[in-house]
Amino acid sequence: MARRERLICTSAVLLDGGAGVRFTIERGGTPLPAFAVRFHGVVRAYVNECRHQATELDWNPGEFFDADRLYLICATHGALYQPDTGMCIDGPCRGARLAAIAVYEREGGVYCSED
Q1: Per the structure, how many domains does the chain have?
Q2: Does the residue 83 lie in any domain?
Q3: Rounded to whole angstroms, what are the CA distances from 88 to 25, 26, 28, 79, 105?
Q4: Containing domain of residue 18, as a range?
Q5: For residues 60 and 26, what is the distance between their CA atoms, to the nearest angstrom?
Q6: How many CB atoms within 10 Å of residue 30?
Q7: Domain containing 105 — which CATH number?
Q8: 63 domain residue, yes or no
């Protein structure tokens, strides 16, 4: 089956350290919640699931960053993740990583590839 690209949002929507964009991906035929954020100028995307327990991270829809805009934070458990690597650096799942999703920017849009 050929891979197809899908537009997640326009590049302008993702401000550095700002609100993220929620979307859904399919892995193994299962739909999963996901999100994209911009950090230090680069767009990153992850499955929206804390590595401690299967809960979504955002405390309000699209709000993934802590108050200082330095880390992604799980609203339920307080786990802190590095936005550029998805590595948990503090909290109950320290050392675990968020599941990354490959995204890229082209012609003013943010895209992911799907099977």
Answers
A1: 1
A2: yes
A3: 22, 24, 25, 7, 25
A4: 4-87+99-114
A5: 23
A6: 7
A7: 2.102.10.10
A8: yes
Residue with tokens 């109950």: 92
Q: Is residue 70 part of a domain?
A: yes
pLDDT digits (tens, 9 = 90+) for 23-60: 999 888 889 999 999 999 999 999 999 988 888 999 89
Q: Tell me if residue 108 falls in helix, strand or coil.
A: coil
Specify the amino acid at residue 14: L
Other CB atoms within a 10 A radius of the CB of residue 17 amount to 16
What are 77-86's pLDDT values in tens digits? 899 999 999 9
Q: How far apart are CA 48 and CA 105, in angstroms?
A: 20
Locate the DSSP E strands across the chain. 4-10, 21-27, 30-39, 42-47, 72-73, 80-81, 88-90, 100-101, 103-106, 109-114
Q: How many helices (H) and strands (E) does the chain have?
A: 0, 10
Structure tokens at 98: 């968020």
